[in-house]
Design brief:
The structure holds 2 protein chains of 2 kinds. Helices cover 34% and strands 21% of the residues of chain A. Chain A contains 12 helices and 13 strands. Classes of the chains: A alpha/beta, B alpha/beta. Chains A and B meet through strand 2 of A and helix 17 and helix 18 of B.
Chain lengths: 321, 502
């Protein structure tokens, strides 16, 4: 039987992060998202590269080249040839993730000067600076950081696009020997039906959930989705006691929309978890959306009003970021 | 113009700074303590450096008095009775400090302040105790005007330590330097977090690996001056340093360096140390009739020599022909591996040398990763640190440090510069510190990029005081001038900032 290593597209690993959950955490950002939020400040993580190679010739450092996904997979298989078979699955288990792609751009991180030219020229909101990594690849990174961290957080993009991979990853993290007990958190936009498939929750301490917009019309406009599943997940995760925190971004001047979102969310979560009220910041936001949402960040006093509102509606652990 | 006249006419020197400079000049008029021609040659080439200790030592470089004994028996020479309350205790200390010599003429170790003062503090009303301790800290800052003055706290929590942390944050003073002895079994997270918060706001305390120091020195060790491990009731005779980059310049290959140039320079530095230690013990009067010795506050057998090294990174890069520091020591496994081989060779040769008058340490000198001096420029990075400007991510930097800290019982350390968001997550900083100490880091220092009080290489200065010197005004702190030099020549304040995702 041919063993094929499950791979996932990793945009970035931050070894030490103090903003992705409690304590110091290793944060893994996966490429690809289910929503298209207007205020997204790293839109290059939204889509998967289509292999147009527009960025290859523009890279001033010669850090990008074209290579097939198959050869990237072969390299990963080689790396983990002698590692545990726990996370190896028979052929085809995750083929859907890769099958419809023409090819991929290979990024040489040792040559990259992080000038972001590739991201600026990309027409697809798809960073070419990603690596396809296996669970053993990630575990090797986490072994390094394990002594210094409380746990790991998977984020994105939208991490739940890699649900099966994450189940393997979290199981492997929990099985790590000789390191402090690490917690595994998901940072999710709520587009994955946790109730229908709760397997990931069984190996995770919980979810940090974005509730970006309440109200179908506003939600469609802001995130490109009516958001029903997000609110269903809010209820389900609360009931399952797997809600680590909820976040809402306050858009400048959108009194009614902000109020409805905060009021609804606050009255749901009560004191069950932290409620982070985040100010909209134009940094990194696509230009056309900056024009629509605002070219200045949400004023602190304005955002504070919604922290107060959240508390008024029962979210005792609401605070401003 | 004579050197003396230069000193007298320098508008940036305070009266005391002039006095110290003139004393150094006076000391240099006698050269009866002689070394071999080969030593002078190596010194002239910059391969060996005496850290301007002066050519006629009349006291050991670092002295760590036994303050417990002072509180137990008082001091006959200074006519001080054992203190009976907090006011008497701080008064006794303030007087005693003025009579503790050192290379800087100021006391480099002012005691385990929390443990010493706790019995008196808990008998007082907290607000009153805080007022007294605030005046005590002000006295140290204004009288012992030198950032190498160092106080220790921990590993256990105490009312005194908490008050000292509060005051440190409120008063924002560069003096004294402070170290927390950290022991995961003794130091509570709550106390350690209070220390982290204080460190981010004032660049102190630093965190010392208590288990590591204790295994080398026993329970009664001091962290003095920058980050120097020494015995309480003892100290360090002398601290010269090999400038490893310059030592490597004549080597034809890494192997040639390890077999010839390195041992040759080690032996020359040992010769220098032996002669100097013998002179201090046999010729100078310190160990014969200074009251610190005659009343037992220090014992000669508790002193050792500190064998310093600096510039390991540049040495390895030179030997391997690496021109770009971004691909050199600390970032390139081959260069880092060579660094380990060099340190192992130094450790072995020094440990094979029978050192005079180091009875408490098996007649051996102990290694020290010297933090550099203001005139080093970019030629020799402090100790075994990765050069400023080439620091990798924090994880990688810690991993490199963890390979080297074990070599240096008399001190080493690294400094991490954090940006503002870390003040909101002190538990994340503590987690990093705990992990690194558990993995063999000896000493961790941190500060916030926007602070006024900042850690230069091992000592603290105020950026606002450096500005005074630039405007040709005087700075009360003797060390401000070193901070200015280290910044101008070595970019010591331009460390990589650890952002929220480090």
């Amino acid at each position: 039987m041919v063993i094929i290593m499950k791979l996932a597209p990793v945009n970035k690993i931050i070894p030490f992060s103090n903003v992705d959950g409690p304590g110091n955490r290793t944060a893994v950002f996966f490429q690809g998202c289910t929503f298209d939020c207007k205020f997204c400040h790293n839109p290059e993580t939204i889509n998967m590269c289509i292999g147009c190679s527009e960025c290859v010739s523009k890279c001033p450092a010669g850090a990008l080249s074209c290579q097939s996904v198959e050869s990237a997979r072969a390299a990963a298989d080689e790396r983990s040839a002698d590692s545990s078979t726990d996370s190896c699955k028979s052929p085809g288990a995750d083929a859907g993730m890769l099958s419809n792609r023409r090819g991929s751009i290979i990024w040489d991180s040792t040559k990259c000067v992080q000038c972001d030219t590739c991201i600026r020229v990309c027409q697809s909101n798809a960073s070419p600076r990603i690596r396809y990594m296996s669970v053993p690849d990630l575990i090797a990174e986490i072994r390094r950081t394990a002594p210094y961290i409380q746990g790991i957080t998977v984020s994105g993009g939208e991490c739940t696009l890699q649900n099966d991979f994450l189940i393997d990853l979290f199981s492997a993290v929990r099985a790590l020997q000789d390191s402090p007990r690490l917690t595994c958190l998901l940072d999710s936009n709520g587009s994955f039906d946790f109730e229908a498939d709760p397997r990931i929750l069984e190996v995770s301490e919980g979810v940090m959930l974005d509730v970006k917009a309440v109200g179908k019309e506003w939600s469609r406009r802001l995130i490109g989705d009516p958001g029903d599943l997000v609110l269903k997940n809010l209820d389900y995760l609360l009931k399952a006691e797997k809600l680590q925190e909820v976040r809402t971004v306050i858009i400048p001047g959108r009194d009614t929309e902000n109020e409805e979102t905060v009021r609804y969310t606050a009255s749901k979560i009560g004191n069950a978890c932290d409620y982070r009220i985040i100010r909209y910041r134009p940094f990194g936001v696509r230009e056309n959306f900056q024009k629509e949402l605002g070219e200045d960040e949400t004023p602190e006093e304005y955002a504070m009003k919604f922290v107060e509102l959240a508390k008024q509606y029962g979210a005792g652990r609401a605070y401003l970021v | 113009m004579s050197e003396a006249l230069n000193i007298i006419q320098d508008p940036t020197l305070t009266y005391r700074q002039e006095l110290i400079a003139l004393a150094r000049l006076g000391e240099s008029t006698d050269d009866s303590l002689r070394y071999s021609d080969a030593y002078y040659e190596a010194k002239a080439k910059g391969a060996l450096c005496d850290l301007n200790e002066g050519i006629m030592p009349y006291r050991p470089r670092y002295i760590c008095p036994d303050y417990d004994l002072l509180f137990e028996k008082g001091c006959k020479f200074l006519d001080l009775e054992p203190p009976t309350d907090l006011l008497e205790a701080v008064n006794v200390l303030e007087i005693f400090y003025c009579h503790v010599p050192s290379i800087t003429t100021y006391p480099v170790y002012v005691g385990d302040l929390d443990r010493l003062l706790e019995p008196f503090v808990i008998k007082e009303d907290r607000a009153y105790a805080k007022k007294v301790l605030g005046l005590f800290l002000r006295n140290i800052d204004r009288v012992q005007t030198d950032s190498f003055v160092h106080a220790d706290i921990g590993p256990a929590d105490s009312v005194t330590a908490r008050i000292l942390l509060e005051l440190t944050e409120e008063m924002q003073l560069a003096i004294p330097n402070i170290t927390l002895r950290y022991d995961p079994d003794i130091t509570s997270d709550d106390f350690a977090l209070a220390c982290v918060r204080c460190m981010l706001k004032t660049a102190k305390p630093s965190f010392a690996n208590h288990g590591m120091f204790r295994s080398e020195w026993g329970d009664r060790y001091a962290i003095a001056s920058c980050y120097n491990g020494l015995t309480i009731g003892g100290g360090g005779y002398t601290l010269p340093r090999m400038r490893l980059y310059e030592c490597s310049l004549n080597a034809k290959s890494p192997e040639d360096f390890l077999e010839n140039e390195l041992p040759r320079h080690i032996d020359l530095q040992l010769e220098y140390m032996d002669k100097r230690v013998k002179f201090i013990v046999e010729q100078s009067t310190f160990f014969k009739d200074n009251f610190l010795v005659t009343e037992g506050f220090v014992r000669q057998e508790n002193f050792t020599g500190m064998f310093g090294v600096v510039g390991l990174a540049e040495c390895c890069n030179h030997l391997l022909g690496i021109k770009d520091v971004h691909h050199g020591f600390g970032l390139n496994p081959e260069a880092t591996e060579l660094g380990i081989r060099i340190m192992e060779a130094i450790e072995k040769r020094v440990s094979e040398h029978e050192a005079p008058y180091c009875d408490a340490f098996g007649h051996r000198y102990r290694l020290h990763a010297q933090v550099g001096i203001d005139t080093d420029g970019m030629d020799d990075s402090p100790g075994t640190r990765i050069p400023i400007g080439a620091e990798p991510d924090m994880l990688s930097q810690l991993e490199v440090n963890e390979k080297f800290h074990r070599f240096f019982p008399t001190g080493t350390g690294d400094i991490f510069k954090f940006e503002e968001t870390w003040t909101k997550t002190p538990e994340a900083v503590l987690s990093i510190i705990k992990g690194s100490l558990a993995k063999g880091l000896r000493y961790f220092s941190g500060y916030l990029e926007n602070n006024d009080v900042v850690r230069v290489t091992g000592y603290l200065v105020k950026k606002s005081e450096i500005e005074k010197l630039r405007q040709k005004k005087q700075s009360l702190n003797n060390v401000t001038v070193f901070g200015m030099g280290a910044q101008d020549g070595g970019h010591a304040l331009d460390r990589r900032v650890q952002e929220f995702g480090a």
